[in-house]
Amino acid sequence: MATISVKSEVTGSVWKVEKAVGDQVAKGETIMILESMKMEIPVDAPEAGTLKELKVAPEEPVEEEQELCLIET
What we know:
Oligomer: single chain
CATH class: Mainly Beta
Strand content: over 45%
Shape: globular
Helix content: under 10%
CATH superfamily: RNA polymerase II/Efflux pump adaptor protein, barrel-sandwich hybrid domain
Mean pLDDT: 97
Structural class: mainly beta
Order of helices and strands: EEEEEEEE
Number of domains: 1
Number of strands: 8
Strand order of the largest sheet: 1-8-6-3
């Protein structure tokens, strides 16, 4: 099994977390939604697997390239 790091593409804040640790995710499925400059940006799973760890919480600020979560494939 491999662990994939999912990183933020923008600076903003976590608006909503759609998945919980332990949930199965499909490739392309939305894990969380970030808010940046009043725009909602979905963070999608790059591969199918299990959400191993969430590194951010709702309303928390995030920087571009910050690690958001880990997926175990």
